[in-house]
From TrEMBL:
Source organism (scientific name): Keguizhuia sedimenti
Highest taxon of source: Bacteria
Keyword Hydrolase in record: yes
Signal peptide range in chain numbering: none
InterPro entries, alphabetized: Mito/Outer_Membr_Metalloprot, PDZ, PDZ_sf, Peptidase_M48
Keywords: Hydrolase, Metal-binding, Metalloprotease, Protease, Zinc
Name the UniProt record assigns to this protein: M48 family metallopeptidase
Family: Belongs to the peptidase M48 family.
PANTHER family from the UniProt entry: METALLOENDOPEPTIDASE OMA1, METALLOENDOPEPTIDASE OMA1, MITOCHONDRIAL
Length: 324
């Protein structure tokens, strides 16, 4: 449900529009990370060469947002010049050793972590070579004004970025490296399990390199870059925004892989056919910025989904490996 804004009092002024928007988007992004975590961690052998060691948390500072929103991020999220942990991947090494939201990054393996305007990019360049041949890394974080040292086991997981699209369109995108779920789609789903269906489907498309096979990587990447903004340019989203309709064979291939990923991650798959049918009914292909417009092979997809659900249930009952 949409977050209600607090009523203004003499002690508590009403939130500005920017404040309310940033708070809402942060809550939705947190939900995405939480639902995606078991899919990424439990499917490294199914994500087709896209798995690698990860730290298992996300960190940002106030400059991770637009210049206009830097002060809002400081006020609402408590961010400053230092990179601060905003999300910890459930089941990751970071989670297991007690990394917390709000921890501020001080150093890794004894070297100070950059601060300021380009801290995210500089820290990523610094961290990447350190993570290739290690089982764990030593991090120092600032917590309650104390320097806390943590030895963080690296987490082997499917290495896809998970993004929130700031749009009411009921859609989802993948560009080979990232998955994006729109606000509209998150409002449409009726449970965490349904959100997992959509996330797994986009992760499966990435694992199968479908954006590359369709020659739409650049187009989808541009859409993702636009929709991650607090104020995206929605005039560029007319029609299907230049995305080709997915051939039904590729779409069904992703549905099949996604169902296996979901089952291995502990999600219930029985309601998958009903969910995809409801989405196609409420947002048919004539809704040009909706999911079905770029995934029109609904009948074929549903037949494959129903068959795959039965196949997985049989394997689960006989305790056979859940491998497509």
């Amino acid at each position: 449900m949409p977050e209600q804004r607090p009523v203004a009092t003499s002690q508590q002024p009403a939130e500005s529009e920017d404040d309310a928007t940033l708070r809402m988007l942060t809550n939705l992004q947190d939900r995405l990370y939480r639902i995606t975590a078991p899919i990424l961690v439990n499917n490294t052998d199914l994500c087709k060469g896209n798995a690698r060691n990860l730290l298992g948390f996300t960190a940002k500072n106030k400059y991770s947002y637009s210049i206009e929103l830097a002060s809002t991020a400081e006020r609402i999220l408590g961010l400053d010049e230092r990179l601060q942990v905003l999300g910890v991947l459930s089941g990751s090494g970071a989670s297991k050793v007690g990394m917390r939201r709000g921890d501020k990054l001080l150093a890794i393996e004894g070297s100070s972590i950059p601060t300021g305007l380009n801290a995210e990019r500089q820290a990523a360049a610094m961290l990447l070579p350190l993570m290739k041949n290690r089982a764990a890394v030593k991090l120092n974080v600032l917590r309650n004004n104390s320097d806390v040292e943590l030895t963080v086991p690296l987490t082997y997981a499917c290495a896809f970025g998970i993004e929130l699209g700031n749009s009411d369109h009921v859609n989802a995108y993948n560009d080979g490296r990232r998955v994006m779920i729109t606000r509209g789609m998150m409002n449409f789903v009726q449970s965490d399990n349904e959100l997992a269906y959509v996330l797994a489907k986009e992760i499966a498309h990435n694992s199968l390199r479908h954006a590359s096979k369709q020659n739409i990587v650049g187009t989808v990447s541009a859409i993702i870059e636009n929709l991650v903004r607090i104020q995206p340019d929605l005039t560029t989203m007319a029609g299907s925004a230049g995305i080709k309709a997915m051939p039904q064979e590729l779409d069904a291939e992703a549905d099949r892989l996604a169902l296996y990923m979901l089952a291995r991650a502990g999600y219930k798959i029985d309601d998958a056919p009903r969910f995809w049918q409801r989405l196609a009914t409420q947002y048919p292909a004539t809704v040009l910025n909706g999911y079905t417009a770029i995934h029109p092979g609904v009948a074929h997809r549903l037949s494959v989904i129903e068959r795959t659900v039965g196949e997985i249930k049989t394997k689960q009952a006989s305790r056979r490996p859940l491998v497509p």
